Amino acid sequence: MGNVLFSMRNLKGCPIVAASVSPTLSQINPTGRQFGTVPGMSEPALLSNHVAPAISREMLSRLDVSGPRYTSYPTADRFVEAYGPAQYLQALQQRVEGGGAVGGAATPLSIYVHIPFCESVCYYCACNKVITKHHERAIEYLDALRTEIELVVEQLGRGQAVSQLHFGGGSPTFLSDDELEGLLATLQSAFRFVPGGEYSIEIDPRTIDASRLKRLAAMGFNRLSFGVQDFDPHVQHAVHRVQPFEQVAELMQAARNEGFESINMDLIYGLPKQSLESFQRTLNQVTSLKPDRVALYAYAHLPQRFKPQRRIDAAALPKAEDKIGMLSMAINHFGASDYDYIGMDHFALRSDSLAAARRQGRLHRNFQGYSTHPDSDLIGLGVSAIGRVGAHYCQSAKTLDEYYDALRRREFPIVRGLMLSRDDLVRRAVIMAVMCQGRVDIESIELAYLIDFRQYFAAELRQLEPLVESGLVQLESDGVRVTALGWYFVRAIAMVFDRHLQADKTVERFSRII
Q1: Nearest to 352 by CA among 393, 300, 294
Q2: I need a labelling partner for 476 at 20 to 30 A (CA). Which of 197, 260, 331, 381 fits?
Q3: CA distance 72 to 367
Q4: How confident is the model over 432-449, as pLDDT tens digits?
Q5: pLDDT averaged over every residue in the chain
Q6: How do beta strands 293-298 and 346-349 pair?
Q7: If you average pLDDT over residues 397-404, what whole number do you get?
Q8: If DSSP states are collapsed to H, E and C, what string results for 442-495?
């Protein structure tokens, strides 16, 4: 991989924010009032948004409800334990029998590799992780990963094309350079990595230096994602993740010097000790470094579900109104700093390929978030990893013991998943059109799935009416269009077409939609 030019995905797969009660549309706009005229609001969502709609704190507070992130449909909480290794084997065999074809052309694979280890715990974290300073624990894990790769190759054959690879965690840089290089060599021998693919790795700035960045570049990575969260020292101490601004700035410059094509930075608002003033300073520091992409997540304090959060002083958390203020501040700040709002909680420099894809209607979405590459079958490797093959979704065991046990038996470590129904496939197409293109073309859906759209989605079209009145959606003769304002609340629009969610509104599972 070292001498091939790759681009990489920068989006994380683990949930930083946690669950709340799913809303009804009356919760989204309980008063029925219109928000008034917003500049650019009636323009198609995919036009350049250099001038963002005016979004007030009141509007954010009213519309920031809870809902899925729609990296898939149905969402992962709908996976069932009746799905196991036999069903996953069937999915792989069906891919081989169908030639891995979509629309008559073979599509390259996407691969996700989960590295669960971290040296220390970040108190906000809700990822599947193993906290340890014993780096020798990676040896057994890497052996298990190699066995899992062998099982995939036995079914798909060696040399399947791959255009996307993402190392997430945990902290992938917990592995030594030699271990990372060895794992990549195993993947290279199993698959054929195509030029122009996306190669990404998540970076904990505390575990890396300029020499390690140089090695990563030599391995073939050319996009990075830095976990920063906040630059304020008081906030960093409160969440047990201390990494000075100067350290990150030096690493960013070193990465630029090594020719990394794109760098993402993760931020979280709503952390303990954060204030409007301190968060504004963090935003200023972030934009001074000019990361190509920024992921801005909301923190939800759920210590009853996530043990590390029990170490956070709830009294130190910002008030709800200040949290909304931080979001409003960030939207305005990035908009004024040469960034486009991509969707949900992501921003990209207007020169970045992701921003260009959004403007041109070429966004795609999968379990790793927004991408410029068409959606493809995803092979998940490692503990808790999620995959998608054809009309199948699957997830591996969440504990190391269970993961190791399956692979010792040379059995796929799949413990839950889902085979999509025809209705799931139709709704997936509609929801992804909303999430990625900001528009559902009725004729395209009707031709692809042989349905009468207005009849099939009659109830959903009625449920969209409050969002139309709120200026988030336009119902047109040939489709459903998300407005420029609606793009900031696109999850709320997609939720209308989610049959599972509409049938089960009271289960606590999802993050805030902003």
Answers
A1: 294
A2: 331
A3: 6
A4: 999 988 999 999 999 999
A5: 85
A6: antiparallel
A7: 97
A8: HHHHHHHHCCCHHHHCHHHHHHCHHHHHCCCEEEECCEEEEECCHHHHHHHHHH
What is the total residue count of the chain?
514
Distance CA 412, CA 121 (A): 29
Q: What's the predicted TM-score (pTM) here?
A: 0.85
- Determine the Cα–Cα distance for residues 271 and 268; give it in Å rounded to an integer: 7
Q: What is the pLDDT of residue 504?
A: 72
| Residue 323 one-letter amino acid | K
Nearest Cα to 5, choosing from 260, 349, 191?
260
Report whether pLDDT(77) > 60. yes
User: How high is the pLDDT of residue 181?
Assistant: 97
CA angle centred on 344, ends 446 and 217, rounded to 5°: 105
Phi, psi for 4 (deg, rounded to 5): -105, 135
414 three-class SS: strand
pLDDT tens digits for range 203-241: 999 999 999 999 999 999 989 999 999 999 999 999 999
| DSSP letter assigned to residue 433 | I
pLDDT digits (tens, 9 = 90+) for 146-163: 999 999 999 999 999 999
Nearest C-alpha neighbor of 241 from the set 347, 117, 118, 326: 118
User: How buried is 281 (Cβ within 10 angstroms: 0-12 exposed, 13-18 middle, 19+ buried)?
Assistant: middle
Confidence check: pLDDT of 513 > 60: no
Which amino acid is it at 221?
F
In the block, tokens 């909304």 appear at 324
Give 382's Cβ-side CA count (13 Å radius): 22
**33 exposure class (CB count in 10 Å sphere: 0-12, 13-18, 19+):** exposed
Determine the Cα–Cα distance for residues 450 and 487; give it in Å rounded to an integer: 28
Q: Are 276 and 322 in contact (CB under 8 A)?
A: yes
Task: Extract the tokens encoding 503.
Answer: 């049938």
Cβ neighbourhood burial of 177 (10 Å; 0-12, 13-18, 19+) = middle
